[in-house]
Design brief:
With 97 residues, the protein is an all-alpha fold. Helix content is 59%, strand content 0%. The N and C termini lie far apart (48 Å).
């Protein structure tokens, strides 16, 4: 019984330790174009800020759809990020001010 509890505890702990970190994903995959705070604009490439009320209105599902499928010149990240990572970075985008 003690071994079962120990294994369950370690499994739960490792899941939270390795859970996708939206801020880190944004920093490594998104900030180059969108800026560290999501406010960067590159008009020639069609890059718009992502820290706007319009993006917040999309909600996590709308942002996740764009992250997964891409939009305009933004590439799709559905094959580069796991579903958990897409969810984490989408939630993070909605926290940007």
């Amino acid at each position: 019984m003690k071994k079962v509890l120990a294994v369950a505890f370690v499994a739960a702990l490792s899941t939270s330790l390795f859970a996708a970190d939206g801020a880190t994903i944004f920093k490594t995959k998104c900030a180059g174009c969108h800026g560290a705070d999501g406010s960067k604009v590159i008009a020639a490439m069609g890059v718009k800020p992502v820290n706007t009320p319009e993006v917040k209105k999309m909600g996590a599902a709308g942002v996740a759809n764009i992250v997964t499928k891409g939009q305009g010149r933004m590439p799709a990240f559905g094959s580069k990020l796991s579903p958990e990572e897409v969810k984490a970075v989408s939630a993070y985008v909605l926290t940007l001010k």
